[in-house]
Specification:
Structural class: mainly alpha
Number of helices: 23
Shape: globular
Distance between the termini: 121 Å
Oligomer: single chain
Helix content: over 70%
Strand content: under 5%
Strand order of the largest sheet: 1-2
Number of strands: 2
Order of helices and strands: HHEEHHHHHHHHHHHHHHHHHHHHH
Radius of gyration: 44 Å
């Protein structure tokens, strides 16, 4: 029943609404965006679509925010779970990775020690042993060295082994001052200097025999690196790899000997002897120092200070030492009667090996008319002999050593009955050399296995002296016919075969360790006294198995602490 009002009145009634609902109150109508301006509906009323749009947008935004919040929370939880799983995996895999890296480092260190100490400083000693045989032929033919002839150079060869013997006598004092590593560094550095002096001094002195002999005497003193080097190599290797390390070191020794004989008789036959000396004498020890001892120069410079400090310390100890200290030191370093017997037996084997092994090398000219051919055949036999020495792990070191000494003695005795220079003599000499290689390897292994490290300072110089005493005869044996030298070699091998039977057999290292533990336990537990108020005689224990005995000792201690009398106790 109401009449419609004018348009002006209608606008007056509804005009304030946009101002109240305007979300931007400070903005005038003219500046308001188009999407905020009111618009007329179909029935003539103004509506503000922005209100509904804002409401819808707010609801949609709330829904999206809730969904995104849940998604982010889920992603965060998933990321945390993945991080926890990754950390657990790393924690589980870390010990395995560390163990793998440690094994790789140990393998690399073992290979570096074998290459540096075993091959470059050990196997290439073959050049120092065999090269004088070929080098002296060129030196005697050198017109600028008139005093160095075929009749005088054997004296210089003998000076090598004389120096070797003199150096081995001083080895014990040197080992009391320096460690094995320091001795190897000093000897290898000295060999490099001797190689340079061998090339330079003969021409500066006009081929003086005295100077050349003294130079080779010093060369022999430094060759005592062989004894220390072979023990140091075995100390660097694991216990179950020592025999293999010595075998392969000797195999490479034979290969180097073959290369030297082949090169001197072929490619470098017309080469100047000075270049040959530098090639075989100087380069291997220098590279060996760089590979096995990266800080060798620092170690070499510290040797004088180490010697001075050791001498001052020893003088102070001598002044301030008491009787108890002297008795303790003597008891620690002294050898037992059994060790002394083993020392004498093993020294006999070293004398035989030094004389027969090096004697055959210097007798190459007596075995065949071609000295290079005989040297190559002998060194080829060395390879087979050193590889055959691995049979000691199967049949036992003592058995293999004594049998090979016996076979070598028989072959060398047969060799003395043939025509000098014939194939018959050369064949049996090669077979005898092969047996000597096996025996020599087992003797070197026994040197480190039989004696503990505390006793090696006393026995190593003895073995070095024994080897040099035998090898001292090698240059003179090389000038004798095979009918005279081979019977002497055979007699020494027979004596060494008998001495090998005295040595202990180390067929299985684990059995030896168990036997040592059992002996130690039996010695310590043979007589145990309980409380004197309840027991007046010693407690007897049967020799039980080591593992059960260790489990039984706590029970035994508890019974003794309660004062119970226990006789003839046995393992449960």
């Amino acid at each position: 029943g109401l009449s419609p009002q004018p348009e002006s009145e209608t606008m007056a009634l509804v005009a304030p609404a946009p101002a109240a609902l305007n979300p931007f109150p400070g903005v005038t109508a003219s500046n308001t965006p188009s999407w905020l301006k009111p618009r007329l509906s179909g029935n003539g009323h103004r509506e503000f679509v922005q209100v509904s749009k804002t409401t819808k947008t707010t609801k949609t935004t709330t829904k999206h925010a809730a969904a995104s919040g849940l998604g982010l929370a889920g992603l965060a939880g998933l990321g945390g779970a993945m991080r926890m799983a990754r950390s657990r995996c790393k924690a589980r895999c870390a010990p395995v990775q560390t163990l793998t890296q440690t094994k790789q480092v140990k393998k690399f260190q073992m290979l570096r020690d074998f290459l540096g100490i075993g091959v470059l400083l050990g196997s290439f000693q073959a050049a120092w042993h065999i090269l004088p045989v070929f080098l002296d032929l060129k030196i005697a033919a050198d017109p600028s060295l008139p005093m160095l002839t075929e009749s005088t150079l054997p004296v210089a060869k003998t000076a090598i082994f004389t120096g070797w013997l003199a150096g081995s006598m001083c080895l014990r004092h040197a080992m009391n001052i320096f460690s094995k590593e320091e001795l190897v560094v000093a000897s290898a550095s000295g060999l490099v200097l001797v190689a340079l002096a061998t090339v330079i001094l003969p021409h500066l002195t006009g081929g003086s025999l005295m100077v050349f002999t003294m130079l080779r005497f010093v060369y022999g003193i430094l060759m005592n690196i062989a004894t220390v080097q072979i023990v140091l190599l075995q100390m660097k290797m694991p216990a179950d790899r020592r025999h293999q390390a010595v075998v392969w070191k000797n195999v490479f020794y034979s290969i180097v000997s073959i290369l030297v004989a082949f090169a001197c008789g072929g490619p470098t036959l017309n080469l100047d002897w000075r270049l040959e000396a530098l090639l075989w004498y100087a380069l291997p020890p220098f590279f060996g120092l760089c590979v096995s001892f990266p800080n060798w120069w620092k170690t070499l410079r510290s040797l004088p200070s180490i010697a001075k400090h050791k001498l001052q310390t020893s003088m102070e100890l001598r002044e301030l030492s008491s009787k108890a200290y002297t008795e303790t030191e003597t008891a620690t370093d002294a050898l037992t009667p059994m060790m002394r017997r083993h020392e004498i037996a093993l020294a006999t084997c070293f004398v035989a090996c030094g004389c027969a092994f090096f004697g055959l090398s210097y007798s190459a000219r007596q075995l065949s008319s071609n000295v290079y051919k005989s040297s190559m055949l002998l060194n080829m036999a060395d390879i087979l002999g050193f590889l055959a020495a691995m049979s000691a792990d199967v049949f036992g070191r003592k058995r293999v050593q004594s049998c090979c000494f016996t076979l070598a003695a028989i072959c060398l005795l047969i060799c003395s009955t043939g025509v000098p220079g014939s194939a018959f003599v050369l064949s049996f000499a090669v077979i005898g050399r092969l047996c000597l290689d096996v025996s020599f390897t087992t003797v070197l292994v026994a040197m480190a296995n039989i004696f503990p490290e505390s006793a090696q300072k006393r026995v190593l110089p003895t073995f070095a002296i024994a080897t040099r005493t035998g090898s001292l005869l090698a240059p003179f044996m090389g000038t004798l016919p095979a009918a005279i030298s081979c019977p002497l070699f055979s007699a020494l091998c027979f004596v060494a075969a008998g001495a090998s039977l005295i040595l202990p057999d180390t067929k299985n290292p684990e059995i030896s360790k168990k036997a040592v533990r059992a002996d130690d336990y039996q010695t310590s537990a043979k007589y145990r006294w309980s409380d004197q108020s309840s027991m007046t005689r010693p407690l007897r224990l049967q020799q039980p198995k080591p593992k059960r005995a260790i489990l039984y000792l706590p029970q035994l201690w508890l019974r003794q602490s309660r004062g119970q009398t226990l006789t003839n106790a046995t393992s449960p």
